[in-house]
């Protein structure tokens, strides 16, 4: 039997609340995809799961290209590095 969310829908939920839930589920799926891929088990997944992974990978590649083109990735990287102490940078080899 396929899995589904059996919670009773809350008619008062906003689009933003639904978007947060979807983003949370997407992050969980992406984490699981990474673990499954590292274990070499991707071929054991259903066609539906492999289709989701392929679409997600494609969307990620597009987003990353756009972030690089806009300079967003570089600025986010620098912001993150600026939060590290000198000792943390040394440990990470930066």
| Helical content class | over 70%
Mean pLDDT: 90
The ordered string of helix (H) and strand (E) elements is HHHH
Give me the number of helical elements: 4
User: Which percent band covers the strand fraction?
Assistant: under 5%
Largest sheet: none
Low-pLDDT runs of 5+ residues are none
Word description of this protein:
- The chain is an all-alpha fold.
- The protein has one domain.
- Helices cover 70% and strands 0% of the residues.
- It has four helices and no strands.
- The longest helix has 24 residues.
- The chain is extended, with a radius of gyration of 18 Å.
- The mean pLDDT is 90.
Annotation keywords:
4 helices; 94 residues
Q: What's the helix and strand layout?
A:
Layout: H1 15-38, H2 47-70, H3 72-82, H4 86-92
In short:
The protein is mainly α and 94 residues long.
